[in-house]
Amino acid sequence: MPKIKIDKESVIKEAAYMANTIGIENLSLKTLAAQLGVKSPSLYNHIDGFDDLKQQLMLYGWKELENRIIEAVIGLSGYDAIRAMCYAFHEYAIENQGVFSTMLWYNQFDNEQMNEVTSKMFTIFFKVTKSLNISQDNCVHLVRMFRSFLEGFALLENHNAFGNTQLIKDSFELSITILIEGTKKLEGK
Amino acid sequence: MPKIKIDKESVIKEAAYMANTIGIENLSLKTLAAQLGVKSPSLYNHIDGFDDLKQQLMLYGWKELENRIIEAVIGLSGYDAIRAMCYAFHEYAIENQGVFSTMLWYNQFDNEQMNEVTSKMFTIFFKVTKSLNISQDNCVHLVRMFRSFLEGFALLENHNAFGNTQLIKDSFELSITILIEGTKKLEGK
DNA sequence: GTATTTTAACAAATCATATTAGTTATGTCA
DNA sequence: TGACATAACTAATATGATTTGTTAAAATAC
């Protein structure tokens, strides 16, 4: 009877899957261990407790999202690229609600790894805006504006905080259009 | 020796104060009870458990914020009113980080009381946008855009997710300007 | 191939917090 | 003054995270 074998990667992947399916608030070391076929103390050989697990989920999510965004932007430039990135962000957040929750919530400990992983992501955004003949300072502001909107919108949509679900796609589309139109006013500034 | 007396209001107010000072993640019934000078089971005479407490905090916060926004908008109209509301929102979120967390996080159970309290708040927003000769549908989208941005920005700022803290005010100001400029394009549509 | 070492799962125990049940003290009101 | 309601309390229970120490399997060395 061979022992069940797990490793850090399988722990995090299974946790991500469970977070997305049963909801982050229902994820526990107990249920995760059960799902993996081990007892909860065994998880401590691979992660450093429950908080660490959520931190790992957060890093895992930002890396995944980064890949999605890189893919989305291939072959595009300027405002087309921005639009595509926004849609990629939104899609990921909606399809991975549990992981996305940790990305919003557990970015609070400003450790180095965290800054690294999100700055890498938004650097792509940054490069595109710089190509639009907008000053460095204003690019920083713009990235923050898009990021705030994208995270806020996905948070609200995931939490069912918007009433009429039918029109949500329209709201997203119109919002992006407005943000881009506003951005155009910064060209040359 | 008279017994210590607490009631629902003092429980919630103290919880709000503690959430804002020590952080929502450090708030527990144990510490809250200790702060109030009672034992934790006594709290159950006034609230329906820990989750209910956070739900109450959320409702409390939205009501407080509503008052702030109403005050902020007095005497203003049009884009001035929108700008003032945005700043009032931001200020409240930054000054009441713990309560604001519950406002973002515990709005997920779409109970009636919840819808009531937030819709009341954003109705003010809605009324202002309608006065700008913008269609009803587009007003809905606009309110969602502003709300997403405001909640996302405050979440990020509260979590220290922006690097350079010096420029954050500038980022907020520029973002609001862009959102308003974009909104102007919807007049008559 | 056997012995040693490492790895990682395990059982058992501990800790912290929320929650429930049942008890008692205080104050109110007839 | 006495019955009742309120709301505090103590004690007990439940759940999940975490720690400790043990052991079995796998990997490595001889």
Care to describe what's here?
The structure is a homodimer of 189-residue chains. Chain A has helices spanning 8-22, 29-36, 50-73, 78-95, 97-105, 112-130, 136-158, 168-184. With 189 residues, the first copy, chain A, is mainly α. Chain A has one domain (8-184): Orthogonal Bundle (Tetracycline Repressor, domain 2), CATH 1.10.357. Chains A and B meet through helix 6, helix 7 and helix 8 of A and helix 6, helix 7 and helix 8 of B. Chain A binds a DNA duplex (30 and 30 nucleotides) through loops.
Can you describe this structure in just a few lines?
With 189 residues, the first copy, chain A, is mainly α. Chain A contains 8 helices and no strands. The longest helix of chain A is centred in the first third of the chain and has 24 residues.
Mean pLDDT of chain A: 92
* Unreliably modeled segments of chain A: none
In total, how many beta strands of chain A? 0
CATH topology name of chain A? Tetracycline Repressor, domain 2
Distance between the termini of chain A: 69 Å
* Name of the CATH superfamily of chain A: Tetracycline Repressor, domain 2
Biggest interface pair, counts: A-B, 44 and 44 residues
CATH architecture heading of chain A: Orthogonal Bundle
Give the fraction of residues assigned to helices of chain A. Answer: over 70%
